[in-house]
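Thread: quick sanity check before group meeting

JM: Hey all, I'm pulling together slides for Thursday and realized we never actually wrote out the predicted structure for the chain we discussed last week. Dropping the sequence here so it's in one place. If anyone has concerns about the input, flag it before I start.
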Amino acid sequence: MAFTLACKSEPKIHRCRRRGSAAWAIGFSCAERLFLSACVAFRFRVMAQRAPLVMRPLLVSFALIGMSLTAPAILAQKVALSVDESKAEAKIDRNIFGQFAEHLGHGIYDGIWVGPDSTIPNTRGIRNDVVAALKAIKVPNIRWPGGCFADEYHWRKGVGPQRVITLNPNWGGVIEPNSFGTNEFMDFLDQIGSEAYVSVNVG
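JM (edit): ok, ran it. Output follows.
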């Protein structure tokens, strides 16, 4: 749906002259009048801040009078709004709405992975309720393993039956069992119907 907002412009009569730092103009469009009114009000405000206390109320009054004189002319302008439903909308790439999973807190362990022996319903250790929720919103991709966690992670730590237990120095030095690794991540993506966005540290 396309929107067009047009403000009727009047013929410009360039009759401007300067006196000090204030400007007077005749025949300006509504947008120009609004801008001029704001400029004059701002100038008076600056002058009021620098003026002695006895002069400030007078300068503020001038600013309010100037705005009140230009406001009716601005409001009197004709505004047209047209809606064109025939124009095609911009296409938004669905991958913008991807998700992010990292070994921080309970984001992975307990959040996605509970292990195959858990009493929480799961498929190969991955929570069924989480899978159902992410399938429902059609997550296009998931970025993993981090973030900061990717600085230390090596893909070999997350494959095979025997996993090396390490520490997670990026998030408080907690124990990282590597139970949820590269294989489990790919299985997780297959279950929710998403694509892999693998974050790799090449530093």
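AS: nice. Helices lie at 30-50, 56-75, 128-136, 182-192. Residues 2-84 form one domain.
JM: adding both to the slides.
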